[in-house]
């Protein structure tokens, strides 16, 4: 065969092969598309069910907001369950499995260790016990919600793509699953409180009480509502032993997410309308779909002569409640309070311990996990010592459906009276009403015990009876003299109240102080003023670090000429085009990581880490820089000046290696380094799916320690601003869409408005879909029963 003929044949074969591959690929793509189309929920239809007493409608607007109209609250719960299930069932499934420790059933051994950590709390058993004790109305609401969820699941033509990819099947929704969804929020919001106390216990054992007091002292960024100040550490800086210093391993101390929120309010004396105004933006990890779900409920209140109620806000798929919103007379929002709701109890060898078995199902196997349980709580062994965990999440008052009661409350005073009845993680509840009142109160589950501790307690100090009782009276501030209220996860309580309720991992206070100062700078506010404050990314917190770094680098002006110029002209903000901000921000992180490396090294050997208390290290770090103790300087550096320069060079080199192939400082723009990347959980494992499942990557805006909180996949999960009674001007912006289905027009709808910082309206807009669900007639019910009996 000639060379020419061979080439021709190869060419034809290549073309044929390419054509075959393209045809095969096209077939696969078409098949996938067809499967996805078949799994799309039907948003416009007429259905019947025996689970409701009167017709309900579920409308969807241009953002996919679920507008629910019902004749009573129980039927509204059914409709909300149906809507949630249509758009978000897989995400709901993950939430309940996360808290119950049942993810391995879908994801196999990859989720086993996480499941074991969840089974330690035995939350499914606790949810069942609590459900049986709930008031009849709440059980009925959860039952109706579950029926709605399961009916939507049954009405689905094809399994959603998540179950097809994982080769698994959805499991019916149970009433207790909604309580497990609330427990998932407990784990997110109070998980670090539990870790914090164990870390401090290990720190105390390794380095003594003085080191604990030195490291977790409050900062000067204190912004309590009464402006009270807790005195900083007055003792000498503890010395580090030389061997500890020598054996230290430089490593990143993981930056904890500022899980929590900002919120603030002003009374009607500071608005043109005379209504109070509320702002709330909850800071959580981002994923696709985003955690919140836009909803509006419309139903008559039987206790108010059937007066129509309209509640608009965001719900948490998995539970039949509006979490944050407004009913036209009252608006409410939350931030994590970070009071102390957990204690570790050091137990002796003669403490009675029972073994309880928690079988964990895998796709093709089962593991019988064992939990050690004492009368003080589940038991964990750390560094050879047994500790029992006493946590409010383990109590019978931890979760309930009392949040529903806010929907029909008319005033701040009435809502504040309900605060201690609401079974959620302890929150700063901010309230505003249409009469001009504004208020703050800690809402949620708080134990009556009055001896919170940062480190493990002995059994002799344990107040067992008080742990089983909800604290009846909680601090509150309503209509303060300055007409302004703010919270941002730092201490809101007075110093006296702080001693009573403890510290569960407060934020430094920089965000709260910046919000407070912005509020104090004006005497009149509208919605746009509040929105601009939510977007405030001025770098006030980092100014001392910028000045210190300039001072350090100025000792070698020629070597660091470019660096100095960029840092000096940093713009004083976490702005997308600022290189100087990136350099300052990462220098701070590097010098903290390196300074506290000896302590982190020791804690790692005890299965702990400074990560959960890293935010506290700001104050001791500055005291070290000011006093310059020799025992803290790594031996390879002559003094603190040399150490600081080395830390800067390390951080900058690391940045260049990651973000600049050509090693140019100009490439280290903050918007590039802190890109907002919101991903679907599956695309993290299968990057090929990213283009179809993820939100577009956006340049970063904001950071920690400022009102505009934003990390790479973290930040304001919603931006809410409202004057009750003026909802037509209210804002509700969310960084993602309503639906979890990638072919839905509501999959990304809302994301663009969020990143462009537009005023997305709270109230629904033009209606695009209407779903009507009617109760079965008596004849239909009889026919259904007959069919069930037929052979």
Topology diagram in text:
Layout (H helix, E strand, L loop, with lengths): L2 H36 L6 E5 L6 E6 L4 E4 L3 H28 L3 H4 L4 H8 L3 H11 L2 H19 L6 H6 L8 H33 L1 H7 L26 H5 L13 E7 L10 E9 L7 E9 L5 E9 L6 E5 L3 E7 L5 E5 L7 E9 L2 E10 L2 E6 L2 E7 L20 H7 L8 E7 L4 E6 L13 E2 L5 H4 L8 E3 L5 E4 L7 H7 L8 H11 L6 H8 L8 H11 L7 H8 L10 H17 L1 H8 L13 H10 L12 H20 L10 H4 L7 H5 L4 H4 L20 E3 L2 E4 L8 E3 L17 H5 L11 E9 L2 H12 L2
Parallel strand pairs: 1-23, 3-6, 10-17
Antiparallel strand pairs: 2-3, 2-23, 4-5, 4-19, 5-20, 5-21, 6-7, 7-8, 8-9, 9-15, 10-14, 11-12, 12-13, 13-14, 15-16, 16-18, 21-22
Helix pairs in contact: 2-6, 2-8, 5-8, 8-9, 16-17, 17-18, 18-21
Instruction: Give the amount of beta strand, in percent.
Output: 15-25%
Quantity of strands, as a count: 23
* Number of separate domains: 3
Q: What's the number of helices?
A: 26
| Gyration radius over CA | 28 Å
Question: What CATH architecture of the largest domain would you give?
Answer: 4-Layer Sandwich
Q: Could you give a short description of this structure?
A:
The chain contains 26 helices and 23 strands.
Describe the protein in words.
- Helix 2 (73-100) crosses helix 8.
- The chain has three domains: 1-38; 46-211 and 260-538 and 680-685 and 712-791, Glutamine Phosphoribosylpyrophosphate, subunit 1, domain 1; 543-572 and 575-673, no CATH class.
- It has 791 residues and is α+β, with helices and mostly antiparallel strands.
- The strands form three sheets. The chain has an eleven-stranded mixed β-sheet with strand order 1-23-2-3-6-7-8-9-15-16-18, covered by helices on one side. Strands 4, 5, 19, 20, 21 and 22 form a six-stranded antiparallel β-sheet that branches. A six-stranded mixed β-sheet has the order 11-12-13-14-10-17.
């Amino acid at each position: 065969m000639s060379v020419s003929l061979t080439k021709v044949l190869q060419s034809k074969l290549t073309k044929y092969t390419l054509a075959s591959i393209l045809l095969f690929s096209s077939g696969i793509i078409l098949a996938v598309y067809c499967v996805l189309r078949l799994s799309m929920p039907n948003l416009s239809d007429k259905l019947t069910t025996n689970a409701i007493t009167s017709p309900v409608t579920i409308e969807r607007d241009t953002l996919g907001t679920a507008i629910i109209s019902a004749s009573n609250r129980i039927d509204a719960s059914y409709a909300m369950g149906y809507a949630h299930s249509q758009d978000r069932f897989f995400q709901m499934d993950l939430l309940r499995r996360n808290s119950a420790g049942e993810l391995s059933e879908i994801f196999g051994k990859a989720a086993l260790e996480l499941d074991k950590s969840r089974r330690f709390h035995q939350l499914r058993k606790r949810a069942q016990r609590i459900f049986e004790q709930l008031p009849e109305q709440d059980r009925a609401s959860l039952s109706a919600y579950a029926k709605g969820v399961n009916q939507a699941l049954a009405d689905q033509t094809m399994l959603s793509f998540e179950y097809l990819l994982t080769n698994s099947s959805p499991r019916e929704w149970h009433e207790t699953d909604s309580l497990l969804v609330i427990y998932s929020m407990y784990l997110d919001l109070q998980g670090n409180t539990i870790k914090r106390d164990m870390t401090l216990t290990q720190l105390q054992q390794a380095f003594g009480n003085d080191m604990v007091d030195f490291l977790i002292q409050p900062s000067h960024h204190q912004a309590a509502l009464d402006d009270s100040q807790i005195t900083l550490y007055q003792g000498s800086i503890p010395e580090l032993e030389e061997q500890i210093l020598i054996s230290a391993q430089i490593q990143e101390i993981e930056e904890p997410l500022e899980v929590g929120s900002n919120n603030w309010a002003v009374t009607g004396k500071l608005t043109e309308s005379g209504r109070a105004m509320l702002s709330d933006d909850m800071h959580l990890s981002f994923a696709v779909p985003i955690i919140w779900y836009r909803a509006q409920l419309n139903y008559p209140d039987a206790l108010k002569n059937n007066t129509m109620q309209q509640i608009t806000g965001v719900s948490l798929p998995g539970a039949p409640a509006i979490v944050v919103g407004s009913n036209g007379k009252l608006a409410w929002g939350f931030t994590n309070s970070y009071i102390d709701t957990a204690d570790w109890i050091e137990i002796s060898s003669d403490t009675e311990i029972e073994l309880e078995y928690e079988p964990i199902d895998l796709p093709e196997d089962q593991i019988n996990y064992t939990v050690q349980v004492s009368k003080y709580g589940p038991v964990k062994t750390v560094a050879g010592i047994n500790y029992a965990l006493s946590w409010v999440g383990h109590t019978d008052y931890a979760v309930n459906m009392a949040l529903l009661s806010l929907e029909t409350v008319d005033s701040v005073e009435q809502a504040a009276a309900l605060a201690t009845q609401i079974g959620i993680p302890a929150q700063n509840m901010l309230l505003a009403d249409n009469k001009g009142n504004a208020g703050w109160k800690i809402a949620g589950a708080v134990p009556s015990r009055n001896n919170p501790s940062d480190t493990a307690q002995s059994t002799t100090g344990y107040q067992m009876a008080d742990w089983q009782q909800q604290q009846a009276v909680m601090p509150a501030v309503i209509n303060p003299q300055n007409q302004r209220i703010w919270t941002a996860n730092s201490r809101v309580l007075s110093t006296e109240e702080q001693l009573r309720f403890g510290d569960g991992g407060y934020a430094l206070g920089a965000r709260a102080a910046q919000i407070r100062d912005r509020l104090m700078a004006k005497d009149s506010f509208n919605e746009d003023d509040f929105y601009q404050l939510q977007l405030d990314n001025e770098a006030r917190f980092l100014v001392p670090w910028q000045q210190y770094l300039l001072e350090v680098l100025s000792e070698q002006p020629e070597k660091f000429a470019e660096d100095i110029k960029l840092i000096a002209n940093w713009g004083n903000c976490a702005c997308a085009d600022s290189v100087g901000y990136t350099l300052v921000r990462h220098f701070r992180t590097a010098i903290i990581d390196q300074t506290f490396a000896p302590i982190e090294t020791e804690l790692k050997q005890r299965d702990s880490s400074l990560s959960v208390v890293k935010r506290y290290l700001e104050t001791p770090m500055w005291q070290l820089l000011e006093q310059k103790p020799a025992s803290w300087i790594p031996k390879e550096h002559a003094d603190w000046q040399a150490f600081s320069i080395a830390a800067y060079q390390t951080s900058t080199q690391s940045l260049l290696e990651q973000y600049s192939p050509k090693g140019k400082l100009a490439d280290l723009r903050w918007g590039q380094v802190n890109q907002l990347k919101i991903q679907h959980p599956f695309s993290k494992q299968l990057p090929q799916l990213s283009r179809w499942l993820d939100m577009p990557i956006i340049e970063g805006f904001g950071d920690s320690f400022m009102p505009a909180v934003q990390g790479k996949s973290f930040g304001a999960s919603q931006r809410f601003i409202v004057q009750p009674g003026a909802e037509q001007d209210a804002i509700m912006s969310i960084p993602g869409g309503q639906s979890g289905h990638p072919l839905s027009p509501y999959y990304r709808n809302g994301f663009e408005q969020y990143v462009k910082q537009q005023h997305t309206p709270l109230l629904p807009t033009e209606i695009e879909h209407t779903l009507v669900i009617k109760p079965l007639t008596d004849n239909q019910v009889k026919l259904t029963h007959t069919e069930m009996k037929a052979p």
